[in-house]
């Protein structure tokens, strides 16, 4: 099974609602699909959504990074899998979403070459997973209405986007908590919006009112490691690192410092599946559980995340793989079923992606 070509295409998809965090507002999904073709007709699908404010990438930079790696991959056999992964990672630093998109397509092909679903190749099982749903940051009434809608659709965990204004954030959390049944788990994501002091004041404030969220995600700037430690020593709410952890080195530092309670693994930050698996193992060695998350991205890369969740189900105990549910429609044909909070893996080979509809090839 020899790689004969690599093509990239734009995937554009409308959102049900604008996606708003303290870092950015997005009105429609635009990401990059990678299609690796082999001489026997096999196709591997990959995908990645550039998130300039988090990974520093754009569609243009992803295309350039993939073009750089292409000559090292085309003409090689899928059976040389480890060498292929090595090429993805060794010719350029950073560019983690581009690397992830390529890796996902390579893993899809490798699993197909073994006639296995990807989760089986990775040691996982066919399972149904539960994801949360993200509630975009906005006015309190709108956020409450969105939360109630999500609960009526069966979501048990809601990820509340905050972080633009600590005072307003307290009001949002209190109002949302009051509006919901206690059984609904609240995950708070400030996307780096607060200082360490503000985080402690705010979290202690809601804790005094009896509100303990499932976790607070990335309250402070990505590089504010001391800030994370400062917060962890002063609040009861568990602390989850997102933008602070891309690599194993990032994670090891935070885990050794005991500065966090949970790790958010995203393929777009780790540079794909291989490092995501290693990050789950490293966290497990430290006795720390993980969430697998996603950017605002499409069904191919989110599906890759579900396979990783299956492979590391002992340590990946939480899913934030809601990006497919945030889309109003998309052109990807997949046998992995997305039904609101429920995501069900299938028996199909590789990722379980059959086609990508009409895409704009670049
Ligand atoms: C979509 C997912 N639930 C999510 O909230 N991801 C964000 C970043 C998404 C983006 O800006 O594309 C996060 O966890 O910070
Ligand atoms: Mg986050």
From TrEMBL:
Q: What is this protein called?
A: Dipeptide epimerase
The protein's required cofactors: Mg(2+)
Instruction: Cite the binding residues for substrate.
Output: 24, 134, 159, 294, 296, 320, 322
Give me the residues that bind Mg(2+), please.
189, 217, 242
**Where's the Mandelate racemase/muconate lactonizing enzyme C-terminal domain?**
140-238
Listed InterPro entries: Dipeptide_epimerase (IPR034603), Enolase-like_C_sf (IPR036849), Enolase-like_N (IPR029017), Enolase_C-like (IPR029065), Mandelate_racemase_C (IPR013342), Mandelate_racemase_N_dom (IPR013341)
Regarding protein family, the annotation reads: Belongs to the mandelate racemase/muconate lactonizing enzyme family.
Q: Which residues form the active site?
A: 161, 266
The species this protein was found in: Sulfurovum lithotrophicum
Single GO molecular function: racemase and epimerase activity, acting on amino acids and derivatives
Q: Name one GO biological process term.
A: peptide metabolic process
Primary enzyme class: isomerase
The UniProt record lists the keyword Chloroplast:
no
SUPFAM superfamilies noted in UniProt: Enolase C-terminal domain-like, Enolase N-terminal domain-like
Q: Which Pfam families match?
A: MR_MLE_C, MR_MLE_N
Q: Which controlled-vocabulary keywords does the entry list?
A: Isomerase, Magnesium, Metal-binding
- Could you tell me what the cofactor note in this record states? Binds 1 Mg(2+) ion per subunit.
* E.C. numbers: 5.1.1.-
Organism's domain of life? Bacteria
């Amino acid at each position: 099974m020899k790689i004969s070509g690599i093509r990239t295409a734009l995937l554009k998809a409308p959102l049900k609602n604008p996606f708003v965090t303290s870092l950015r507002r997005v009105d429609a999904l635009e990401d990059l699909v990678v299609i690796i073709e082999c001489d026997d007709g096999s196709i591997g699908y990959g995908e990645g959504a550039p998130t300039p404010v988090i990974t520093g990438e754009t569609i243009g930079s992803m295309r350039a990074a993939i073009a750089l790696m292409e000559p090292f991959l085309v003409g090689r056999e899928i059976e040389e899998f480890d060498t292929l992964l090595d090429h993805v990672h060794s010719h350029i630093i950073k560019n983690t979403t581009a690397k992830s998109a390529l890796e996902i397509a390579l893993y899809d092909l490798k699993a197909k070459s073994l006639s296995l679903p990807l989760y089986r190749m990775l040691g996982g099982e066919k399972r149904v997973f539960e994801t949360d749903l993200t509630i975009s940051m906005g006015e309190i009434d709108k956020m409450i209405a969105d939360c109630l809608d999500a609960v009526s659709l069966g979501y048990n965990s809601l990820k509340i986007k905050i972080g633009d204004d600590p005072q307003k954030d307290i009001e949002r959390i209190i109002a949302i908590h009051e509006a919901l049944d206690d059984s609904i788990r609240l995950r708070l994501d400030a996307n780096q919006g607060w200082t360490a002091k503000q985080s402690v004041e705010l979290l202690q404030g809601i804790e005094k009112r009896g509100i303990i969220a499932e976790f607070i995600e990335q309250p402070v700037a990505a590089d504010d490691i001391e800030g994370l430690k400062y917060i962890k020593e002063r609040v009861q709410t568990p602390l989850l690192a997102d933008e602070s952890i891309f690599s194993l080195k990032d994670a090891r530092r935070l885990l050794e410092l005991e500065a966090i309670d949970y790790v958010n693994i995203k393929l777009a930050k780790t540079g794909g599946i291989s490092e995501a698996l290693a990050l789950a193992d490293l966290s497990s060695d430290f006795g720390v559980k993980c969430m697998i998350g996603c950017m605002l991205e499409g069904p191919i890369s989110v599906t890759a995340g579900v396979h990783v969740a299956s492979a590391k189900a002992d340590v990946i105990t939480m899913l934030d793989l809601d990006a497919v549910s945030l889309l109003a429609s998309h052109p990807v044909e997949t046998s992995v079923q997305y039904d609101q909070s429920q995501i069900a893996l299938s028996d199909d080979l590789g990722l379980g992606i059959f086609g990508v509809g009409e895409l704009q090839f670049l």
